[in-house]
User: Which sequence fits this backbone?
């Protein structure tokens, strides 16, 4: 039987608003995850196998088999962070440290998994007034920004996310957003934790067609490629000490 | 009644080995915390009020009153990480994000509080063979290293801690240790999380007189000064979103 | 004779606009340097000795004796970057690597000394339209921001400096500015180079009373304290290799 | 005529020792650059076009045409840093800021181009005693380390490079070397400057067969892929300010 050598992407969505709010359902009739999946399939082509998982599935769709075979996980959550089981969060955490990429979208800033990886509250300032957001490029030339409009691109109606954003200093700051109402936000940030690469990307409120925006789609597709590990590692971040030989080597 | 304007330091020690192992009791008859306390009092002088807390005290000695009034907390634990209650860890975590400094010593790398702040396993390689450790200065001029021997100082018999050390990239790497047996280790690292400053410093095995070493004492005293907040802040990292006004300001 | 143990601060100003443009002279009749000097004397008190130096003095006022005895140098330049002699720049560069703090103000981003320390072009986007600048605090609790209004403060009329700002990733990002016209800017950044601490702080256009603003004065005074070395070091960044002993030490 | 879409790699070597010292010529009969070129061709395959340039060629082999068409430049120099012309260094500097990758090898730490990009002296401690170097992996999972022996690999006889190494804090620290004689060194470091990615990799003394080592070859080949820009950019780091429109945009 043929082995599937494609990178495996899993888009996780709590999938709540799309079933309860008509205006969200209209924008994302099959769920935010399906809109993102279509965009990734179109942009990434044959080298990637893109699947989805949602909160209401058994084990939230994140079984051991799915996690073991996921190279990059995307995370969208908002209304139901508390309903994500701690045991599943612990497994995702371990997989990120073992090398799985993680892309945290929008309100996922307050998810258990992002808070656990960051070690901070990850809280921020916000306002849902459908205002103009202009995203400035801070790291031109970064692979995650390849093909994106320079020196900025705009979202005509967005939820404001503002500073202070309580995260550790990012490894790389890729985007800073300007909001019409007077705020700024570090809207694209990379972090490495264990062997895993993490990208936080703030646009994405469910009541706006953000995930239909070509620049947003482009950045997510680039981030998937950036976050994918070269090989599925054998690293064990499971919490055990490694005891070295009791006899130190002798210097020649 | 006079107000005490001194910075308040609390040295937390699990205080287990010193009561169960004769060779440790001999080195630290009143506990590692008392040895460190004496060194800090001597080196820091009148501007600091240095106290201690231990695992076996009610609330591990870290009551709300103690934590609220602590500017810098030192942490030494090894055999009893699991016996530290999660509720206390959560309080310490919140205080660090609110601006309390934290100095994590030696085997405290595997403490709940350090793992929670780092978001990684914090695991490492080790060997207890009493070998030579030479600590090289990587950031000459850093306030934490003021007065320390340049370009390195030595501990004649130490426990080896080796890479890979599973931590986020430190904000500043101050020391790298060379071990006789063939390993290296990032032995002095700074991190900022929320408003709190964190310093991890690896020397300190309980069976060696590490905390009697003048360079080690000097670095801990410097770190206390570096980690102390300018003012006790009013920042709230408690996990609540800050909702901004629904009407964005108008540009003039 | 009594030794002066105070930290020595030198404010360097090209001092051109104040003598050629009436509107600048009105705001800064004795030069921007004198306005800053008065603010520092008032805020820093007796522990600091604050002097000035200007372009038109011999050696631009930065003789060997002045540089050797300066703990923190402030730099304001704009119209005359090219008239600063390379030999003086080389001396300032060496002193920063040896531990002298450096605070680069506003248009000093394009100075020879800042470009040399950063290794990049340090170029940016700008517009002189007297628009509203709102400076958001990104690192609450940082000593340089002690006492500054939280979560932001404003300058009602400022020159816009915007991204992309071509600098290396700062060690710490303290402030991000929002501009009325639609731009953002990393307006407060720290860097360490050699033993020296560097702070870049963007407000300060000569045609606005920026250096009379209490928050701006407060940040500069804090930065002086932050950048001052603990001791005047003996480190030699002068370009010579250090050849170690040809016989490696023997492991015990 | 067919367009060559392959990434273009240029290996620059001063090519002095190989022509003057018999023991070096024996190890690298056609020059260090040719040994590296063969390794890269073997490991990188058809997607890359690997060429060389040397000091004694006109414009040191780095004409405008060569530089414009180079995606990643490797740099080996030691005895003749001063003979590299400043005008060529300025061009290479501009190309790195424009997005060309740069891999600096061994004694290239003291090259004009590396010093200019770092802004520091880049000096270090050294000893040529043919001692054991053990390179520990600090960032497991990093693409530059893909396929390299874990948790360390060794070079049985190497020149010692030791701390303090006077560089800015690296963006990512990938390797720390342990030396038999008692030193440590940050032997693999990444930096981003402008749009360019830079990797410093310390092994490589000309009197040892370092560039015949499979782990060393593997790391250089990985670094070439990591440093290659996605696209050849149009970014201009040339020193001109970008003046934005004098009329700020109006908020809707």
Assistant:
């Amino acid at each position: 039987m043929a082995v599937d050598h494609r990178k495996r992407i899993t888009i996780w969505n709590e999938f709540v608003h799309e079933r309860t709010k008509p205006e969200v359902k209209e924008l994302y009739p099959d769920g935010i995850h399906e809109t993102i999946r279509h965009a990734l399939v179109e942009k990434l082509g044959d080298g990637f196998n893109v699947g989805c998982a949602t909160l209401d599935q058994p084990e939230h769709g994140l079984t051991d088999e799915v996690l073991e075979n996921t190279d990059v996980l995307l995370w969208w959550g908002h209304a139901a962070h508390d309903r994500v089981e701690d045991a599943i969060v612990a497994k995702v955490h371990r997989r990120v440290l073992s090398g799985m990429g993680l892309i945290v979208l929008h309100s996922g800033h307050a998810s258990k998994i992002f808070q656990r990886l960051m070690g901070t509250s990850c809280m921020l300032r916000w306002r849902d007034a459908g205002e103009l957001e202009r995203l400035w490029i801070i790291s031109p030339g970064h692979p995650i920004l390849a093909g994106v409009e320079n020196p900025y691109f705009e979202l005509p109606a967005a939820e404001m996310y503002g500073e202070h954003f309580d995260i550790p200093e990012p490894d790389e700051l890729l985007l800073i957003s300007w909001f019409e109402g007077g705020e700024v936000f570090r809207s694209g940030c990379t972090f490495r934790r264990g062997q895993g690469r993490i990208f936080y990307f703030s646009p994405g409120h469910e009541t706006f067609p953000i995930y239909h925006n070509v620049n947003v789609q482009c950045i997510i597709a680039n981030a998937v490629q950036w976050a994918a590990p070269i090989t599925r590692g054998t690293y064990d971040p499971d919490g055990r000490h490694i005891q070295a030989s009791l006899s130190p080597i002798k210097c020649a």
